[in-house]
Design brief:
- By secondary structure, the protein is mainly alpha-helical.
- It is elongated and about 75 Å long.
Length: 188
């Protein structure tokens, strides 16, 4: 938990240029999931709404996604750290250049995979929000559900942007195409 909070604080620190949009997007998704869980819980047992089990399922899934996305913010910060470390590797000899290049490629692929996973989670949060909208919810929490949808959309868009910015740096076409294919399936 402390590492997640440190990643969040790094996003808030304008002088820290090592943690940015990917972490912020994941945290936005985590907040969205937390709000969706809250709306589901506030809807439990309300007259004229869906059965209790439906809201329990949504709340449990949203809570799980909230934790995964909060963890994902830390993972995104660590992925950037790996890229930065790879670029700092020595490059004087042929062996050092080869090692550095391989480390950069591995780190860049990881730096695209992390926000890709977070994008999928944000997409799932959006689906939970839509499920609540379509199947009924406690309307006293309408603004909370709207905020959840906005935050999940922002999280999704930010994660997608972070995947796309890393793709051109991945030289392995098989890896790059696989990431693009998974991204396309999320965005359908």
């Amino acid at each position: 938990m402390d590492q997640n909070i440190n990643a969040f604080l790094r996003v808030l620190d304008a002088t820290d240029n090592s943690t940015g949009g990917g972490t912020a997007s994941s945290i936005a998704g985590a907040m969205a999931a937390g709000l969706a869980a809250m709306v589901a819980r506030l809807s439990m047992g309300k007259k004229g709404l869906a059965p209790l089990e439906q809201y329990e399922t949504i709340a449990a899934e949203a809570e799980k996604l909230s934790q995964e996305l909060f963890d994902g913010g830390r993972e995104d910060a660590l992925a950037f750290d790996r890229v930065s470390s790879a670029y700092k590797m020595p490059k004087e000899t042929a062996d050092e250049k080869t090692s550095r290049s391989l480390a950069i490629q591995k780190a860049m692929a990881h730096a695209a995979e992390v926000p890709l996973s977070n994008a999928k989670r944000c997409h799932l949060v959006l689906k939970l929000c839509r499920s609540l909208e379509e199947n009924g919810f406690n309307t006293n929490a309408a603004s909370d559900l709207k905020c959840a949808s906005y935050l999940a959309t922002a999280g999704l868009n930010g994660c997608v942007a972070n995947v796309r910015i890393n793709l051109p740096y991945i030289k392995n076409l098989k890896t790059s195409e696989a990431i693009k294919g998974r991204l396309k399936s999320i965005l359908k």
